[in-house]
Please model this.
Amino acid sequence: MTPVPALVTWAGRLPAGLKYSTLAKFAEDKNWPDRGWSVVLEFDRPPAELGSPSPGVVRFLMEDAPHDRLRPGCKFELFAGSAKVADVEILAAGEE
Amino acid sequence: MAQQTANRTMGIMGALGAVGGVVKGLLGALLGGGESTVSLFRAVSPAEAGDIVRNGFRAEPAGRSIAEGKWFATSAADATKWGNAMFGSQPFHIVEAAVSADALPSMIRVSRMDNIGPAVFATLDQLLGVSGKIIQ
Model:
């Protein structure tokens, strides 16, 4: 589960912590939110300091997630319940 | 009393092998008086666990979270799986929340999340006045 570089554009408030995890919505998720996957975002500095968009890295929470979705150019959304909290764009492939 | 009712109901449902908080709530209402509750479970850091016990469920005090609610598992076993994934080798607790059965239908529910199991998202408003108990 190599984290990949990503750019996160926040829809509202910006997190004040270095790590944030919630449910992602990918174009491939036909029955979303059912069978959805959580992602984990990590930042060198809190997004509240970085501003939006915030550069960071992203990975799936689970080992058995569809990791091939996190490819350069891929875009997906983050939700907390029914509220969209961010758009994410994968910037590059992860380091092997 | 409500908690006792919920726990007794959960035992019955466990014996039946059934899953479904709404049904548990309805059975709870039939078996005992008062408000019926449904147990939800969440893996949390030791710091969050302590805050929940002292203050109930609320927005993250240090303001590090932007979510207007919290995700829960519907079983302690599933919450433990999420905790293992989230915290790895770091310590965490499983907290049980007894939420009103009446509130459950209005919560966001996911039939299967992260290939673990059902998940429920409760808003902070829905968690107002809900107490938490560390069970693990």
